[in-house]
Amino acid sequence: MKKDVANKLDIYKLKTPEELLKYYQDWTNNNKYNKDMVDWNYTAPQETVSVLKKYALKKNSKILDAGCGTGLVGIELKKYGYSNIDGVDFSQNMLNLVPQGIYKKIEKVDLNKLLKFKNNTYDVIMCVGTFTYGHVMPKALDELIRITKNKGLICFTINEGIYEEYGFDNKI
């Protein structure tokens, strides 16, 4: 039986990075996060990678999965032959659940802060499920643009509820 999606909305009420990290720490116990994504029929990783595939990228494109969580987007990218993928996430507990061999590098990074990557590092940036309540703010797009190569792509999702409330409508 599928869970009511409202069950996951508690995370949207959190106000501080510390609260968010604690929530993810608890959510990753016994692989609960990944189980919930299956139960909730969470398809954003598959749908977003499907959009990306339309751009006929080279399989060796350098890709950053920004807010990679447990690697759901990376797994989808690997299915289609992409292998030059790095992953970053705010929660070390989430990163600990990433299957081996999905990413070349994984690192704990706060996307709301300046990123240590050099300008024009990535051909593609995927950012799925991170632009949502209490997570990554619109100003992070500036950093993602900075580290994306000229004529590169940024493929992301934004929670509909925060699009105007957080100012994504003005940022984009």
Automatic annotation (TrEMBL):
GO molecular function, one term: S-adenosylmethionine-dependent methyltransferase activity
CDD domains (alphabetical): AdoMet_MTases
Ranges of residues in domain Methyltransferase type: 64-156
SUPFAM superfamilies in the cross-refs: S-adenosyl-L-methionine-dependent methyltransferases
Protein name as catalogued: Methyltransferase type 11 domain-containing protein
